[in-house]
Amino acid sequence: MFSISQDFAPPFKLISPFFILGGVFYLLASIYIFFFTADNLFVQDTKVLSFVHLYLLGFVMMVIFGAMAQLVPVVLEVGHSAVELFYAIWPLLGIGTLLMAVGFLGYPALLPYGGTVVLISMMIFVMEIFSTIKKVKKFSLVISSVLISNTFLFFGIIFGLTMALGYAGVIEVDIISLLRSHVYLVIGGYIIVTLMGLSVVLLPMFGLSHGFSMRPLEISITLMSISVVLVVISSFVQYFFIEYTAYALAVISMFIYFYMTYTIFKTRARKEIDIYVMSLFFGYISMVVAVTFGVLYLFISYEPLLLASGWLMFFGFFGFVITGHMYKIIPFLVWFERFSPLVGKQKVPMLADMLPKKSSHAQFVFGAIGVSIIALAILMQNDTMIKAGASFLVVGAFALFRNVFFMINYK
Amino acid sequence: MYSKEELLLAISTVIDPEVGFNLVEMGLIYDASCDDEGNVKVTMTLSTKACPMHQMIVQWVRESVEKMANIKSVDVEVVWEPAWNITMADENVKKALGA
Predict the structure, then answer these.
(1) Looking at CB atoms within 10 Å, which of A92, A175, A264, A362 has the fewest?
(2) Hey, are the CB atoms on A269 and B52 less than 8 Å from each other?
(3) Contact A410, A351 (CB under 8 A)
């Protein structure tokens, strides 16, 4: 019998710090945007690198790791190999992120330390996931996606640490070449493949979707994986054709993935448009626009297009897909811990009751306006608009921070 | 000892906290029977295989039946064939969900 044991579920005190810290880093990253001006916005600017690490490691990775602590037993149908290791992951990832963010800002000597701490944190995560996967008897597409994404993460962080040592002047490496591999391994290989794999579990589960084909997901994960491998190869073998084939495959993969989510959405039985669905809508639309901007950049090489693409991918797609799922996962975890033992003994709340409705909608509206204004500001190279967008985003980030505490403390 | 309808009535006290409907009106309970000794067999499914509440829901179903008088044992079997879909739910559920 297919069974998810309650014994497999990690305690809430193990997972909650990931979501709290994720909220803190999201807020910090939003405030950081006030310090950008249009003229210093270019991809390799150290301020941009600091911001990207603060956001991706502190918010995106932190929340994904926390969610994986809960989702891995559900997806893999086995208990964690050593779930207690998650107690070490969040402090190390938090400290490492801060060291890296400060290091990029003007203290490069901190980068190897930050990089090493992040490396240790991620290695613990990757190894725990690998040893958990070893217990799996039958591999499904979703389990394969977890294996693939974590393998890419493993190599991505090694590339990242090598670059950190290069930035700090400890070793001599071609940072430009390594950067492309690092970005692709971590973002395309880990974050996107993870989101792809988990979304075919989570989207149908929350939307009660049935009768859709998994074939598009198989194709999109395969194409994205080939793309990542080709980009890594192209970092070492300077061959134009390999690099551009990789980009083309990544674009096709993303559009097929978008089609997949569209079919899941079309077949869902739950038609309500709640904060979860609204967040997903905004996230997926941001993704399509981001990919389109990325393709345009390949043809016209206007750097603001690349920056706007990255912005929409990070704060639009990753940001909203993750915050949307936080509104589902946190109430479930709290309910599971606090209210499930009371079922049948007294009246317990529904999961939807545990959501701060007005505040979550405020977070969505302010966040979405902020992301859109900043995307335009980047394209138009307009300082005032960056500050205006940041103002909206910070209000939205405060709301998210408040909402996390509201849900965690729901009694 | 108990009819299918009586068993379903007992199981209908189990509510899915995510959607807010009971398992019977969701169409998740495929069969329920009870022999003369009070041994109950419930055949059910879940709306999705990757349901993190799987074990809890099964436990709630068992407990809801055990509350009935003279029940000796409760065997809850979760099956995936036929796979659940929204057409199995009651009209009020479909209407409320917008299906």
Answers:
(1) A175
(2) no
(3) no
Shortest Cα distance, chain A CAs vs residue B67, angstroms: 10
pLDDT number for residue A73: 84
Contact A294, A249 (CB under 8 A): no
DSSP string, A145-185: HHHHHHHHHHHHHHHHHHHHHHHTTSS---HHHHHHHHHII
ipTM for the predicted complex: 0.85
User: Class for domain B4-87, per CATH?
Assistant: alpha beta
Distance CA A353, CA A18 (A): 23
The stretch A160-185 carries a mean pLDDT of: 84
Task: Tell me how far apart the terminal alpha carbons of chain A are, to the nearest angstrom.
Answer: 34
A373-389 per-position pLDDT tens digit: 999 999 999 999 999 99
* Separation between Cα atoms, residue B17 and residue B57, nearest integer Å: 10
B41 touches chain A (CB under 8 A): no
Residue A270 exposure: Cα atoms within 13 Å on the Cβ side? 18
Please say whether the beta carbons of A261 and A283 come within 8 A.
Answer: no
Distance in angstroms (rounded) separating the CA atoms of residues B30 and B7: 12
Closest CA to A258 of A235, A231, A224: A224
Tokens of B16: 């899915």
CA distance A63 to B71: 46
B60 touching chain A per CB within 8 A: yes
User: Would you list the DSSP string of A250-312?
Assistant: HHHHHHHHHHHHHHHHHTBS-----HHHHHHHHHHHHHHHHHHHHHHHHHH--HHHHHHHHHI
Q: Hey, of B49, B60, B91, which one would you mutate to test binding to chain A, going by the most A CBs within 10 A of its CB?
A: B49
Sheet order of strands, B73-78 included: B29-34, B39-44, B73-78
- The structure tokens listed for A226 are 């080939």
Residue ranges of alpha helices (H) inside A313-382 are: 319-334, 357-380
B97 and A208 within 8 Å at the Cβ level: the answer is: yes
